[in-house]
Design goal:
The protein has strands at residues 4-6, 10-15, 26-28, 32-37, 43-48, 53-58, 65-69, 79-86, 91-96, 104-110, 114-121, 124-127, 148-151, 154-158, 168-173, 178-182, 185-192, 195-200, 208-217, 239-244, 246-248, 258-262, 267-275, 278-282, 287-295, 299-303, 308-310. 43% of the residues are buried. The protein has no helices and 27 strands. The chain is globular, with a radius of gyration of 20 Å. The protein has a 19-stranded parallel β-sheet that branches. A four-stranded mixed β-sheet has the order 2-4-8-7, with no helix packed on it. A four-stranded mixed β-sheet has the order 6-10-14-13, with no helix packed on it. With 324 residues, the chain is mainly beta.
Length: 324
C-alpha cells in the first residue's frame, strides 16, 4: 500500500497493514478516525498552533505500541488515531505555525526517527532547521538532550533524549512570506505559494541542501488551483525562491531525479550551488535560472512556460551526462 490521506471525517480500520517497496504513510491532516491493528506502517500527524498550548510527543520505532493520538496529546488535532500492537518505522510531524500566534510548546520526548515539516502563512525570519545529515549534531538544537528551537510561535524542546531528525519539509504561503533557511540543513520538500524564500548555505560550502523530492514555487496560489496559467508578463512574481551555496538533488542515490517546478510568474534562481540529477519545469511565465553551478548530474528541462537558463559559467563534469 502507498499513502493514505485521512480527512473530511474519513474513517479507516486496518489490520496487518504493511508498507510496500516505496511506501508513504497514513496522513492524519483533518477530521478522521483511524484504528490500525497488528500493522507496520509509517504515520504522519498534524499539530496546529492556532490556540496555543503544549504537547509531549512520544513516537517510538523499535517495537509495536498500543496508544491513542488525538487532541488530548496533539495540539489542534481534529482526528483520533489508535494504534494497537502496531510498529511505526518512521514518523512525520506537520506543524502549522503562526508568525504572531499564541505560545505553543512541543516536547519531543521519544522521537528517534522523525521528519518534521513546518507550514504557515506570511512567515518571516531566518531559521536553521537542524538534522543529523548536515553539520555537527552536538552543535545543533534538538539533536542533543535538553535543547530547544523556536519557529514562529512554536518552541520545540527535547528532554533526556535527542530528536532523530534526518530532514525537514517546509510549506509557505501568503504574500508577505519572507523566510531564509540557513545551513547546515537538509530540506526534502519545499513549497512556496507566495512571497519569498531563500535556502542559503555558508559561503564557500554546500552545507545547506535539498533533495528536491518536491520543490514547487508559485503553485496553488490565490488564482486558479490548477496553478499552471500564465499571468501578464510585466506582473510581479507570485513567488520567488533563491538557492545559494547548497546541494540540490539526490547525491546519495544516483539516477533519482529531483524536481523543481515553477508556476505562473514565479522566479527560481540557483547559484553557487552543486546539482545532482534534476528535472526543472516551468509553467505560465515562470522562469528558472542557474548561475555558477557545478553539474554533478544531468539537468532535464521541461519548458511548458517561461525559460530555463543555464549561465555559461556553470561547469559540467567531463564524464557527466550534462544538460538536455
Amino acid at each position: 500500500c502507498y499513502g493514505i490521506t485521512v480527512g473530511s471525517k474519513g474513517r479507516l480500520r486496518a489490520t496487518r497493514l504493511l508498507g510496500g517497496e516505496s511506501p508513504d504513510s497514513v496522513i492524519m491532516n483533518g477530521p478522521g478516525d483511524v484504528v490500525l491493528r497488528d500493522s507496520d506502517y509509517m504515520i504522519s500527524l498534524t499539530a496546529a498552533a492556532v490556540a496555543g498550548g503544549s504537547g509531549v510527543f512520544d513516537f517510538p520505532i523499535a517495537a509495536p505500541i498500543t496508544r491513542v493520538y488525538d487532541r488530548g496529546n496533539i495540539p489542534g488535532a481534529e482526528y483520533r488515531l489508535e494504534l494497537v500492537n502496531t510498529r511505526v518505522p518512521l514518523w512525520f510531524l506537520f506543524l502549522r505555525v503562526a508568525q504572531n500566534g499564541p505560545e505553543t510548546e512541543i516536547v519531543l520526548r521519544d522521537c528517534p526517527r522523525l521528519i518534521p515539516s513546518v507550514m504557515g502563512r506570511n512567515l518571516q525570519g531566518k531559521w536553521r532547521l537542524p538534522c543529523l545529515r548536515r553539520g555537527d549534531p552536538a552543535s545543533l538544537p534538538l539533536l542533543h538532550p535538553h535543547s530547544s528551537l523556536r519557529l514562529a510561535n512554536v518552541t520545540l524542546r527535547t528532554l533526556e533524549r535527542p530528536a532523530g531528525i534526518s530532514t525537514w519539509g517546509v510549506y509557505l504561503n501568503g504574500p508577505k512570506t519572507d523566510i531564509t533557511l540557513t545551513g547546515p540543513t537538509l530540506i526534502c520538500e519545499l513549497m512556496v505559494t507566495e512571497g519569498k524564500a531563500t535556502l542559503a548555505g555558508t559561503p564557500g560550502t554546500f552545507d545547506a541542501a535539498t533533495t528536491a523530492t518536491t520543490v514547487e514555487v508559485g503553485a496553488f496560489g490565490p488564482a486558479d488551483p490548477c496553478h499552471a496559467e500564465a499571468v501578464p508578463g510585466d506582473a510581479p512574481p507570485v513567488a520567488e525562491l533563491l538557492i545559494r551555496n547548497a546541494e540540490v538533488g539526490r547525491f546519495d542515490r544516483a539516477g533519482i531525479l529531483g524536481q523543481i517546478g515553477a508556476y505562473r510568474n514565479a522566479r527560481v534562481r540557483i547559484e553557487d550551488a552543486r546539482t545532482a540529477d534534476l528535472r526543472l519545469i516551468t509553467h505560465g511565465n515562470a522562469t528558472i535560472e542557474l548561475r555558477r553551478v557545478q553539474l554533478a548530474g544531468r539537468i532535464e528541462r521541461v519548458e511548458k512556460g517561461g525559460a530555463i537558463r543555464l549561465e555559461p559559467d556553470s561547469a559540467s563534469p567531463a564524464t557527466g551526462p550534462g544538460l538536455r
